[in-house]
């Protein structure tokens, strides 16, 4: 069941933020009749992955939501003075939707080194990055500089020299113990930082 149908349901749900209709499932599963769809739906209901609302429409269950990478949003927590907080299920948050905009262009790396600690990126952290060949000044990037890869702030400045506008690019660490990196031959952007993930 998982391999044949659930992956397609999850993909549809991620894209459309709702469960498909029976007609849509016929196309989704390449079925020729709604009876075949009904049999699959019955098995999904028995497995606790979907349910029907009062109008007979399919809705995802908690198990389905958890399976596609969502976690419960239980409220707000203060980072200032302590405050009383009552736990209340406000919503479910899908981590893919929250962190990833372009799934095909996104990948993760594990951080090795301490050159970005003042940006709160430490050794052992996981960084979520999106492939790109350009970046804005001040963005944290994965870059290839003179044949070696590193993660740093991307810096760009323009200046007027002898009547001509010249552009200067370099990489800047977030640790005073490291010096900026000025390319001798080449500096190519490979990806832009999207998120930092740390397990405690």
Automatic annotation (TrEMBL):
Domain of life: Bacteria
GO BP, one annotated term: SOS response
Alphabetical UniProt keywords: Autocatalytic cleavage, DNA damage, DNA repair, DNA replication, DNA-binding, Hydrolase, Repressor, SOS response, Transcription, Transcription regulation
Classification via Pfam families: Peptidase_S24
InterPro entries listed in its UniProt record: LexA, LexA-like, LexA/Signal_pep-like_sf, LexA_repressor, Peptidase_S24_LexA, Peptidase_S24_S26A/B/C, WH-like_DNA-bd_sf, WH_DNA-bd_sf
GO MF term (any one): serine-type endopeptidase activity
CDD domains: S24_LexA-like
Residues covered by the Peptidase S24/S26A/S26B/S26C domain: 72-185
Family: Belongs to the peptidase S24 family.
Name listed for the protein in its UniProt record: Repressor LexA
Biological source species: Candidatus Nomurabacteria bacterium RIFCSPHIGHO2_01_FULL_39_10
């Amino acid at each position: 069941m998982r391999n044949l149908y659930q992956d397609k349901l999850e993909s549809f749900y991620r894209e459309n933020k709702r469960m498909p209709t029976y007609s849509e499932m016929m196309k989704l599963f390449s079925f020729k009749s709604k009876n075949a769809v009904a049999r699959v739906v019955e098995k999904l209901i028995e497995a606790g992955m979907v349910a029907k609302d009062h109008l007979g429409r399919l809705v995802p269950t908690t198990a389905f939501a958890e399976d596609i990478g969502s976690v419960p949003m239980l409220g707000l927590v203060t980072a200032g003075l302590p405050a009383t907080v009552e736990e209340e299920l406000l919503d479910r948050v899908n981590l893919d939707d929250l962190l990833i905009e372009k799934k095909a262009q996104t990948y993760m790396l594990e951080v090795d080194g301490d050159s970005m600690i003042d940006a709160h990126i430490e050794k052992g952290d996981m960084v979520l990055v999106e492939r790109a060949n350009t970046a804005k000044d001040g963005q944290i990037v994965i870059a290839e500089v003179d044949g070696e890869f590193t993660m740093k702030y991307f810096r760009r400045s323009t200046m007027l020299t002898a009547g001509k506008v010249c552009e200067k690019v370099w990489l800047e660490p977030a640790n005073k113990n490291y010096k900026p990196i000025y390319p001798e031959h080449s500096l190519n952007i490979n990806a832009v930082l999207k998120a930092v993930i740390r397990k405690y």
